[in-house]
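Hello, quick one for you while I still have it in my head. A protein chain has come my way and I'm curious about its shape. I'm sending you its amino acid sequence along with the backbone structure tokens. I'd be grateful if you could look everything over and explain what you see. Here's the protein in full, and shout if anything looks odd to you:
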Amino acid sequence: MTDEQTRRPGNGPAGRPAAGKLRSEERSDEAGARRPSGAGSERGWRSPTLEEVAVVAGVSRATVSRVINAVPTVDPAIRAAVERAIAEIGYVPNLAARSLVTRRTDSVALVISEPPGHGSYETPFLNRLFTDPYIGRVTAGAQEVLRPEGIHLVIIPADPPSHHLVLRYLRQGHVDGVLLISNHSADPLPGQLHDLHVPAVLSARPARPVPHSYVDVDQQAGARMAAEHLLALGRQRLATICGPQDIPPGHERLVGFRAAVGGTVPAVRGDFTRASGEVATRRLIEQHPDIDGLFVANDLMAEGAVRTLQELGRRVPQDVAVVGFDDSSAALDARPPLTTIHQPVEEMAGEMAQLLLARLRDPRRTPRSVIFTPSLVIRQSA
């Protein structure tokens, strides 16, 4: 990757008309020309046509087509006249016909991928997908950038049974590009998208080198912040519930935490779900009942950990201080609310969308990496 940049977070249909009614009302302008009446007239049984826009604007049909297809050489005054005519009569472009000319669909796919044969998670893929606040935050951040551009976001789960179907859908050109959530080293999709010349931006540093832009947070720095906070509180017997070690975020958060503590730290693996945090906490307490500080690699697992610690008679934070990672809605849902590492997911997703739009405008654009800086958010759990 080149040009790495570090970012700090900022704070009718009408059915078929009756016979004889497929027509438009007309009225005369001051020059005596006949033209369709404006929106809200009695024309409601069918949509205005490109020709009718041309009549209202006083230009040719070809000129209207060039305006609709955003041809940059159209005179600004003529463009304004055509846009006024479109607004006046309520013309809506036929996107299917337009895509034949522009070779654009005005759609972008948000693909959440898990590779075929991947078995490190205990919880089914779709269960994790629809209970993880991270996905909602990525969607919201991307929409903030894409919606003003008139681009639709299509959310596509790519679990192992449907992986080949998703790849075929993307290959067939149903979308202009892909925002890809995929961290697994075994996932072939990033490389396949490149081979198929599908523009894509990744949501994290790829596990294997691939010429796509990506956006990430400094994972190790966030984990170090968590360790330093627990040590500053005087906690001496630290442990962690880490994420899957075959994806960069899970691995790097464990590496960063252990490096900051300066020694071997008990670790039990979860799969970033609340249930796995509960199971991992029970296992951890069975093996290390004297821990007094716990770093959990995401907020969902941390919420499950806090609940389980309380069930086992541990007070949070008096007996065990807990720090999560993400600063998601799960951090606020926990009782007590979680101290956590904030990653600006919405801003990161917006940056992904910006990088993809830039790539669509200039296919020769060099891939970039943009790295955001995490921050510590202190609440009641530590």
About this structure: Confidence is low (pLDDT under 50) at residues 10-44. The chain has three domains: 26-102, 103-218+345-373, 219-342. The radius of gyration is 27 Å. Residues 26-102 form a domain with the 434 Repressor (Amino-terminal Domain) fold (CATH 1.10.260.40).
